[in-house]
Amino acid sequence: MNDYDCVIFTHGCFWHHHHCYLFNVPATRTAFWLEKIGKNVERDERDIQRLQALGWRVLIVWECALRGRAKLSDAALAERLEEWICGGGASAQIDTQGIHLLS
Prior knowledge:
Layout: E1 6-11, H1 30-53, E2 57-62, H2 63-66, H3 74-87, E3 92-95, E4 98-101
Parallel strand pairs: 1-2, 2-3
Antiparallel strand pairs: 3-4
């Protein structure tokens, strides 16, 4: 979205280790999964830092905001997206609780 200098990612809660009800470490091969998911998180952080250094704002929309028992309504999601895209705010994330700055 060049006009708004923003990049939007949709992250799966399992694959990117979101602290929500959709993330559960598998009972088998636990060490393998923790290492794999940990590398995903490291890559995400590195990629976000690189994009920000190039002047891009980054928004992560978490899977739990899009599906499941606690998902946002279509209207609520659209409002949060418009608020962030058009408002020019800092890098952020959207989950079941709404929009929050990236930490």
